[in-house]
Amino acid sequence: MTDSATAAHRPGEQALTRLGLGGPALSPADASPHTFPGGGRWRTEIPSCEGPEALAVVLKESSRLDVPIHRISQGSGVWMLTDAEITEMAEATRERDIELCLFTGPRGTWDIGGSVRSDSRGGGLRARGHDAVAGCVEDAVRATELGVGCLLVADEGVLWTLHRAREKGIIPADTTLKVSALIGPVNPVSYAVYERLGADSVNVPSDLTLHHLTEIRRASAAPMDMYIEAPDDLGGYVRMYEVAELIRRGAPLYLKFGLSKAPGIYPYGAHMRDLTLDTARERVRRGRLALDLLARHGADGDMAPLGSRLPGSLHRFPTGD
Q1: CA of 214: how far to CAs of 185, 221, 247, in Å?
Q2: How far apart are the two ends of the chain, measured CA to CA in Å?
């Protein structure tokens, strides 16, 4: 295990120790023993990149601020993009060796079902009925045929279906499947189930404690995604000062740079252009702030190589009929 996986990189620690207020020693047992294949304990992701224009802004800003990007994801869905737009995004990210992830749909919040709008939020983002599952598969086939390598999923049945689809060659075998924060698991058992259903990375809610991350890592090595700053509809949590410890506990970890105190933009359209471009630019800046903090505390090592995207060997349920 690397030094950064065992050492303390807590902001303010040296000053507090001089004042006799140092924190307790970190337990080596809390550190995740896992890494990405090919090395590295963390990757980066810029979410909510809703089309070619927003993507161009993100790529320009990442070059200006020297923010390395492993993955760019979109939240409105494949259905909100034309073939030409998807192709443009796929080509632009391929040129930079960045993974592009598009959301499959339909999903509960944009369906006619009323339960998701009830106080209980019954059904959530999941695909309602056979036709909704079919719509997600349609999106997956269309996106992958246009060069998209990663699909975002918000339903367990859709996840299992797409995993079987890549096993049978309906979509490319190297397509990666990412579980949305909207259904993210909150305990180690459910996290391991998502891995076995075909997830290649799993977005957990940003309110999980550090101990929760350690519990998950004792049950699964599947890459984890976490908003270092969460959108308001996911809680608005800001965990920037914990970023080094999040990596130590949760590796292999995608650091997602979201944005709180910003209006929602899903599903995106041209009527939200200025807001979408401004928030895309600011998400990259938030990434720079988090990376600067890591560097100040000597915890910026162990980044996975740029261009790496696969999850490594994971445990799956048998797919035999």
Answers
A1: 14, 11, 11
A2: 40
